[in-house]
Amino acid sequence: MEIAVGSTNPVKIEAVERTLERYEPAVVAVGVDSGVSEQPRSVAETVSGAENRARRALAATDADYGVGLEGGVARLEGVPGLSLIMWGATTDGDRVERGGGPTLRLPDEVADRVADGAELGPMMDDLLGTAGVAEAEGAAGVLTAGLTDRTRALGEAVACSFGPFVTDTYEGGP
Predict the structure, then answer these.
(1) CA-based R_g, the chain, Å
(2) Taking phi first (over 0 means left), then psi (-120 to 50 degrees means alpha), and beta for anything else, what does residue 171 get?
(3) Which of 69, 82, 91, 137 could form a disulfide with 111 if both were Cys (CB 3.0 to 4.6 A apart)?
(4) Beta strands at 26-29 and 65-74: parallel, antiparallel or unpaired
(5) What's the Cα-to-Cα distance from 168 to each of 62, 86, 142, rounded to whole Å?
């Protein structure tokens, strides 16, 4: 099974490899445009970015599946503050399935800066005095003291968007 990932970010590639390892996938990274802003600011925009990445990665290759992953921020009904969200999309060229990863509330200082226009990854680097947090543990790892990290969090979005293709529970499954 060959899977095209719509990103060259090593964390996103590892999330796909780890999550789908039982299928022994050949994973190819494809740099594609998400078609959304660098910092998606709603569920709809984040999902759209994941869908675009999945479709564009598949279209650029001869892979069996395209997978797109996108992180964003959103205000969620019934949840105080601004939340970090992660979404995945998987396509086989005929259908697209979507799945969400973990969601966590951003600390007020972080949320305020993101609400003022900052992009989460670079802003976290600035706050922590680091470089490349988005290609390492990510905000999810920092904000949970390592209880999860960006790879595992994105892996959940991969599992939830890829699952319908490998179970007969959904119409169009294996």
Answers:
(1) 16
(2) beta
(3) 82
(4) unpaired
(5) 24, 25, 37
Q: What class has domain 2-166?
A: alpha beta
The better pLDDT of the pair 135, 44 is held by: 44
Answer whether 134's CB lies under 8 Å from 46's CB.
Answer: no
Is residue 158 within 8 A of residue 69, CB to CB? The reply is yes
Tell me: pLDDT of 174 over 90. Answer: no
Burial (CB count within 10 angstroms: exposed 0-12, middle 13-18, buried 19+), residue 72: buried
Q: What is the pLDDT of residues 148-157, one digit of tens each?
A: 999 999 999 9
Question: For 60, which DSSP code?
Answer: T
DSSP secondary structure letter of residue 167: -
- Residue written as token pair 């890829």: 162
Buried b (16+ CB within 10 A) or exposed e, 6-25: bbebebbbbbbbebbeeeeb
